[in-house]
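Posting this for the archive.
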Amino acid sequence: MHAAARERIMPTRVSFSGENFDIATGATAIILAGLLARGRVLRGWVVAWNAGGAVLLGNIVVNAILASPTIHAFGRAPSEINSFVAYPPYVWLPAVLVVAALVGHILVARRFVADPRTLAALRSSFASPLDSAQSETPFCKQERLPSIPLSLRLPPRRSTHLPLGRYSRAP
C-alpha cells in the first residue's frame, strides 16, 4: 500500500504514510495474543487495545469513504480519489480484510463485556489515587486473565430435535 501511495495509484491519506495507522493494531495483536495465551495481560489493557483498534479502524473507513469517487472530499485529482479498491487485488481490502477486522473487534468486545470482572478491572485501572484510598481494592490492582483461548461464552444449546415418524432417531 505504501508503494501504491508513492506511485499515486491510491490516496496517501488511506495508506499508512497518511492516516492509516490501524496496521499498528494488527502488529500488536500478535504480541497481545502471545501474552494472552500465557495469561500475562491485564484485562484493562486488552479492553483499551480493542477500543483503540476499533477507533483506528473507524478512522480509516471514514477516510476511505470520504475519498471515494462519489464524495471526493479531499480533492478531485486522480491521486486523491479512492478508486483503486475497485480493482484486484485491492478489492479484498474492503470486502474481506476490513470486515474481518471489524468482526474481530466485535468478538473481543463481546468476550470482555460478557465477563462481569471486566467492569471492576476497568474501574480499578482508571481510578484516581484518592478514590483508591477509600475503596477496598488498592490502586491499579487488576486480576490477570486466565490462560484460556478467546471464545464466546454461549448459553447451553437446547435440543431442536423434531420427531420425523419412524425415521427419527432417539435423541
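The helical segments are 2-6, 23-38, 43-66, 92-113, 117-125, 129-134. The chain has a mean pLDDT of 76.
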